[in-house]
Amino acid sequence: MRLIPLLAALVLSAHTATAATQCGGSFNGFVKGLKREAIANGHSKSTVNAFFANVKKDPKTLKADRSQGVFQMPFIDFSRRLISKNRIDVGKSKAKTYSSTFDRIERNYGVSRGVLLAFWAFETDYGAFQGDFNTLNSLVTLSHDCRRPELFRPQVFAALELYENGDFSPTKTTGAWAGEIGMVQMLPKDILENGVDGDGDGKVRLKTSPQDALMSGGNMLKQLGWRAGEPWLQEVSVPKNLDWSKSGLNHSMKASEWARMGVKPRQGKLPNLQASLLLPQGRKGPAFLAYPNFRVYFEWNKSFVYVTTAAYFATRLEGAKSYVAGNPDPAFNGNQMKSLQKKLKAHGHDVGKVDGILGAKTRAAVQKEQIRLGLPADAWPTAQLMNKL
């Protein structure tokens, strides 16, 4: 499910340069290069040879990496697909079963239980489907591929370190196509840096121990900047005459300022925090205030629709009402979105890759053009915008 693995934004630029010069070419030659680097870094030759003995290029991994069309879905469709009554019921049951673990997480890391329950549900359906890709094959394949080697090459050496510690098998360890392991899907480097023995057996077993997986996930979120005891997302109602140009993650103001503009919470009170007004499908659809913790989600996944859905589901697991869907303008399909992105690029906007996904850069460009053309600047593309462009 993850679009980009954990800690992608934290990879050092030096690693990027190194990986970019060492990807591609013969796969066997590439593996020999990895082995030479591992030995140069102090790993014994016999350990390195044993670790890489059976590694293979995995075409299925590359196919999965190129096939992430699910992220083209708009928020309402995506969230309804991922959030079911059964997932909510199971989540509430898991919250009771592991109540003492969640209490420890909240004490030690300040991460609310709904947040981890939502990740647990979306990543592996509460541990039921953890992926059957050979982890080492996937990591080496993605390191060899020149699309994002800087993300994956360091993970190969982290897996080698886990292997030396007795916590990784080159032939038996499996997980997601992008190399994540366990119930909340963590990469080898993340396990080394943030793994926690939650059940007290002396080992960090993220595939078989919910306590280990949840505690490790909580520790990671804290290290990524999670602020203890603060909310992350709150559904609100908005007046029809709001200045829509102030919406979006590129803008923020105190929640009290939003309140003076007529923004009201559907439940509870507005906290005394900076907040961005989030309109996943424009001014006619659901509306949320996103607080500082919401931005931490983007260290877990770069997809706007996934992050918003995961954050919203976390609030549902803690008692929030189902959002008011409203009646948003029709969503563009993938080809329409690509056409829009090309037009935006022609107007000088940086939308990143033309991929048919309404990501942060495309949303920002849409909003700028809406302002320029005198349209409601809610960052949601419409046929009217396309015609004016």
From TrEMBL:
Cite the entry's keywords alphabetically: Signal
Top-level lineage group = Bacteria
- Protein's name in the database: Lytic murein transglycosylase
InterPro entries from the xrefs? Answer: Lysozyme-like_dom_sf (IPR023346), MltB-like (IPR043426), MltB_2 (IPR011970), Peptidoglycan-bd-like (IPR002477), PGBD-like_sf (IPR036365), PGBDSf (IPR036366), SLT_2 (IPR031304)
Q: Name one GO biological process term.
A: peptidoglycan catabolic process
Pinpoint the Peptidoglycan binding-like domain residues. Answer: 333-389
Task: Report the source organism.
Answer: Shimia litoralis
Report the residue ranges that make up the Transglycosylase SLT domain in this protein. Answer: 27-314
Q: Give the signal peptide range.
A: 1-19
Which GO MF terms are attached to this record?
Answer: peptidoglycan lytic transglycosylase activity
Kindly name one Pfam family recorded for this protein: SLT_2
* Keyword Kinase attributed: no
